[in-house]
Structure formats: C-alpha cells, structure tokens
Amino acid sequence: MILKIAFRNILRHKRRTFISAITVAFGLMLFILFDSLMGGMDRASQENMVNLTDGSLKIYSREYAAEKMAYPLKYGIRNVNPLMEYIKTLPEVTGITPRVAFLTEIIIGERSLRTVGSVIQPDTDPKVFTLPKYIHGGRFFSTNNTQEVILGKKLAEDLGVGIGDTVLLSARTRFEANNAMDFEVVGLLETPAPFINESGIFITCQAANQFLDIQGFVTELDIHVPWSKTEDINAYVKRINIIKDKISAQFSGYTVNTFHDLNSAFLEMMSGKRAAQSLIAFFILLIGAVGIVNTILMSVYERIREVGVLRALGIKPKEIRRMFLYEGILIGLIGALMGMVAAFLINIWMVNSGLDMTAFMKNMDSSQMPITGLFFGQWNINAFITALFLGTLISACAAVFPARKAGKITPTQCLKFQ
Amino acid sequence: MELLQLTQVIKKYTKGNIEVTALRGVDLTIEKGEFLAIVGPSGSGKTTLLNIVGCLDTATSGSIRYNGTELGKMDEKALSVYRKENIGFIFQAYNLIPVLTVRENVELPLVIEKKVSPREIRSRVEKIVTKVGLGDKLDRLPAELSGGQEQRVSIARALVKEPLLVLADEPTANLDSKTAEEIIELMKRINQEKKTTFVFSTHDALVQRYAARIVTLKDGNIATDERR
C-alpha cells in the first residue's frame, strides 16, 4: 500500500516529478557521455600507440634500453635474424619490422629543426604500423630508394616544403661521424598521432645505410599483435604480456616492452582524468539531489494532513519515512532512465561521427597527446549500469532528510480539528 | 451504559503572549449509542472538546475516562493505540488520500491493521461503501467525486473498523443543505442500526434536528445539556 501511494503520488505531480527527474537525468547523461568520450580518447590513444608509434611490443638491446632517451646508435640488436625467426613462429604475431631511431636536424635554407627520425623497412613496416594509410599527399616508399623522405604534414608546412622539394638532413653516423644528405620529399603524413604530424621524419633502410652507415644494424624490433575493437585494453595487455614473457624466456640480453610499459606514465594520467570526470559528474548529481530534496520536502509539507490521516489510521513513522523514500527513489529511477536514453541516443552519434575538438585543442601542446582533435565515443555498458545505480542511490540519500522530517510528524500536529 | 466520562476538564493554551482558557472545568458523560451534537458560537470550545475526546490533544487538568480507563495517564503511544482501536474520525475537509480510489481509501485502516484477511476486507469494504450509497463508485478517485460523496467515503472509512465512537467536526459544513441532510441521515441510520456512538460539532440548525442530545457550550462551559 505504501509503495502504491508513493508511486501514484509520483504520477500525480507529473510536471514536478519530470523537473526533478530531469536534473538527475542531466547529471547522469553527462556522466555517461564523459565516460564514453574519455573511453574513446583512451582507446584512440592506445590504438595510436599500437598502430603508429610503438607497435604492440618493442625489443631493444639492454644497453640501448638503458640509454634510449639519447637514441644511441652504438647499441644495436645483435643476432637479429634468429630473434625475428622465433617471433614469426608465434601464432598471435602478424607483423615484425626493424626500425632505427636517430637524432637529426632537418635544414631548409636558413630554417632548421632538431627532431628524431625513423629508419624503416618499406616492405615489412606496414605489417606493424599503419603509416601508408595516412599519406595525405604524395606516396609511401615504393622501393628502397636511397634519396627519399616522408615527413609529417605539419612539419612540412612549418618548414614550407612540399612534395618534390629537397630537404637536407644532418646527423651523426653510427661511428660518430657527422654526415648530411639531400632527400626528396615523396610523402606527407597526417595521422591521428600529432607527434608524427609535427615532427615525423621517415627514411628507408637503404638510405640509412649511406646516411648513418648502419649496414643492417637495427636499434629496435617492432611487433604487431592484432587488437580487435571488442577486446578491452586489459585483456589485450594480458595477451601481449604473455608474448613478452615468451620472448624474454627464450632470448636473454634484450629488453622487451609492451606499448603499455612504454607509455605507463601517460596511461596513468588518463586514469587520473577519469577520477576527475567521476568527481565532476558527482557534483552535477549533487545538484540533482538538491532538486529531489526540494521536491520531497514540498511534498511532505503539502501532504501534511494526508500524513496525519495515515498516522491516525495506524501507519508507523518508519512506514511514512519509507513512503517518501520510495518517492525519492522512484524520481531517481525515472531520472536515471531518462538520462540513460538521452546518453544512448547522443552516444550513437558520438561513436559514429565523433566530436570535433580541434578548436578546443588548438592552443594545447598536442605533441604530448597521442590523439588529434576528432574524438569518438565508446560504448561502455558499465557506465550505464553505474549511472542507474548512482542515480538511484543519490536520490535515495537525498530523500532521507525530508523522509525523516515526515516521519517525525505526529497525527495530532496535522489532524487536530480546527 | 457509560462510554466516556469527562470530569472537570480544563484546557488552557497560549496564543502569542496571551493565555486562553478554552475549556473551564467541563463535566460530561456520554453513553454508548448516543447521537450527540455539540453546538455553540465560534470560540466556545467545541473543537477543543472534540480534540480532547479524540486524544488529538491533551487536557491541562481534569479526568477523561473511556470505558473505565483513565486516558489522561496514557503516553502518546498508548493514546495512538486507543485512537486506532476505538475511534473513527470524520473531518470537515474529508481528508481522503487523493491518490487512492474509494475502495482503497476505505480499506486502508484494515490493510494497515493486517488482522483481517483480504477476502474479509473486500467484503467489509463493499458492504460499508454500499451502505453509504457509493457501491457503484468503488474505483473512483476522490477528485472524481462531489463533496457529499467524499464525506460519505470518509464516513465509510471511519466505520469500516466498527469503532464504538465516531467523532465528527462540522461534518456538513462544506456541503449544501440537501447533501448535509443526507449525510446526517446516514450517520443517524448507522447510529441506530449499529449502536455506534456519534459525537459531532455543528452550527447547522437542520443537522441539530437529528441529534438525540444537544450539548451547548459557551465560553468553555456547558451552558445547556438537552436530551430529546
């Protein structure tokens, strides 16, 4: 009977219920959409790491790993071939490619920029990295042509060069000699990873043999393990860690890192952002809770004689409290459902079309972010369940105060013949 | 047979800084099965007397005995049980639960008590609602009824637990004279059939015609006590 009265009272004041529920709905909708956007950003960042910058796994020599921030060309991977042959036998690995990172200065007339270049092998690199997909202008390396370079599009724009232009690269060779060489720009890269767009320089192994005197020497091996859209990061990292352990057990003297190991600081920062997101959503929900407190309090004062009748008929104070508590919970539930439906509909658009944050990110140092301005949402059923649970819980908490007030009303207070 | 005995009941309360004495030593005995009207001008103490008899208010001094039990010594919890088990209330403003149907409003006291089976509740509710002339409106909400019909529902609710005493404060004040007469006739009929004691306050001369006993209050005292 108590639940029946609560339910009918909610329906009786439809407009009031709707307004209270909508504040809860708004808070929960933002919570779900924040989660979706953050999840989408996380996923896109992680995919960029795997597909564009780090591969699923990266192998260095131990000496190189210890000094890798200095990009030392003196520490290469010894016995590359047996290592590669072994990795190729691992069933989950679909691509392996060598790379050499080197410090270089790109010079155009009087302008120059110091950056890190990458030596890649054009036939195997696309099996690990998806660079060819992001060539916007020009082409990928067709052969091991010695005189070609591919640049990040933003870098090329900053330097004022285009397809067919010649740039001068200067670097120290593997044997510490200074060298400089002209390269023809054959392709421009515009990837979802801003770091590549702003400072990416790619040359072929053939070119590096002459330019850096590397002669088959490599500083890293990059491995690709396919990652399906439906697999979450934890499962994927677990899977590649097994491969990492297999390689480490088979070959000593190497450092094997997953993309997760290499970007742990960034990934931790992203987790921090998630905590901030939850806090924001919590405050929005608090506003909703104030709305519920107000609605239930209004209801208590408006129905003071009704409460009196119920008390006079023998309903206990705890049942009166429960009645108003149910009303709060019902408003919360309605709000949560409204918020979930709204979030669901908006998220369809966010997942499929993405949210263009380019203008917002223009003034940010995007080189630190492995993602560009178009952010896609992500489906996360847990966020919906959490929203439902949170909405109901907060509404229940919000209703406690007015419900207690209602429970304290004595029948004599409100029923006295007047 | 004596149901209620009030001896030297005094009720004082403060209104702002002024002390008001609403009842000044009232002595009144109410027999079982009486149909008693309390009349008097505004401020004479009618409503205060009904509140004290119904345990909705406490007396400043004096004794109130119900069926031999002294009510003045009971705490709020005991008074609540007494109220629930012995008294039916009829309010001027009906005080029906607006979201419940006629049937649900009337069955509420029995549902809360949880002593009667659902089948018994159904049969008792239908019987009493038919008795007050609303058998065809069991599933209507109070908002769909006229004032007179609402008051009938309120009477049915007061009677469904078959209390010994029904208190009614100006039960016809919000009704037109024809409906008021119908309501008072209904109360009188139940009083005669079930021997339920009715104590009601009224200003209405038409209603007073039906009372078997009229107690007139003036300035907190019983001015006249007339049996017919």
Keywords:
heterodimer, A: 418 residues, alpha+beta, two-stranded antiparallel ribbon, 12 strands, elongated, B: 228 residues, Rossmann fold, six-stranded mixed sheet, four-stranded antiparallel sheet, 7 helices
Folded structure, characterized:
The complex is a heterodimer of chains A (about 425) and B (about 230). Chain A has about 425 residues and is of the alpha+beta class. Chain A has two domains: about 1-45 and about 265-415, no CATH class; about 55-260, no CATH class. Chain A is about 55% helix and about 20% strand. Chain A has a six-stranded mixed β-barrel. A two-stranded antiparallel ribbon of chain A has the order 11-12. In chain A, strand 6 (about 165-170) and strand 7 (about 180-190) form a beta hairpin. The longest helix of chain A is centred in the N-terminal third of the chain and has 40 residues, at about 15-55. The model of chain A has no long low-confidence stretch (mean pLDDT about 85). Chain B is α/β, with parallel strands linked by helices and about 230 residues long. Chain B is built from seven helices and ten strands. The two termini of chain B are about 15 Å apart. The model of chain B has no long low-confidence stretch (mean pLDDT about 90). The chains are: A alpha+beta (about 425), B alpha/beta (about 230). At the A-B interface, helix 1, helix 11 and helix 15 of A face helix 1, helix 2 and helix 3 of B.
